[in-house]
Specification:
Blueprint (H helix, E strand, L loop, with lengths): L5 E4 L2 E9 L2 H9 L1 H4 L15 E6 L21 E11 L3 E5 L5 E9 L2 E9 L4 H22 L7 H15 L4
Antiparallel strand pairs: 1-2, 2-7, 3-4, 4-5, 5-6, 6-7
Helix pairs in contact: 3-4
Length: 174
């Protein structure tokens, strides 16, 4: 398994992580607003085909690091993104549209006491969005792992900046 996200087809990025289980616990961190808000974004999620989702991002709540870099200052006090559920098969599959930034799919499979999470983000409009999305998911998933392991979450924005530089070199242009 590659630590970094990979381009699997045009406009698609895929990341894989092995997480401490059980699968129902990981599912709760994807679907429960309070738990999801600890590593990604809170907000209601109507877990049925066509159900509405709302992601209330507030990155200052994810770690001890509170200040966004200049590039992301407009998001410092939060922002909201909406979408719709496109697939939901608890506790193994969750897909949703992600505002105007494509579609996200989480696939979960038990691996003994652990859970393999495969995240695929499709329909990204261009390379710049692919770099941004891969960096964001990489950083958010790192904080999810910290939460699942019961340790203090690493700094979101510092991690994101490091990953953005890394993905600039890893995601091919053209």
């Amino acid at each position: 398994m590659n630590e970094y996200g990979v381009v699997t087809e045009a406009r698609t990025v895929r990341l894989e992580r092995v997480l401490p289980g059980p699968i129902e616990r990981v599912w709760a961190y994807l679907t429960d607003s309070k738990k999801r808000g600890r590593w990604f974004a809170s907000g209601p999620m109507d877990l049925r085909l066509g159900g509405e989702v709302e992601f209330r991002f507030h990155h200052a709540d994810l770690s001890a690091e509170k200040t966004a870099p200049e590039k992301f200052k407009k998001y410092e006090f939060g922002h909201v993104m909406r979408g719709r559920i496109t697939a939901c098969e608890p506790p193994r599959l969750l897909s949703f549209t992600f505002g105007d930034a494509g579609e996200v799919t989480f696939e979960l499979s038990p691996r003994g006491n652990d859970v393999l999470l495969v995240l695929t983000h499709r329909e990204l409009k261009d390379r710049a969005m692919m770099v941004s999305v891969a960096s964001g998911w990489h950083s958010h998933l790192a904080i999810l792992i910290d939460n699942l392991n019961g340790v203090a979450p690493r700094p979101f924005w510092t991690t994101h900046a490091k990953m953005e530089a890394e993905y600039e070199t890893r995601i091919p242009s053209g």
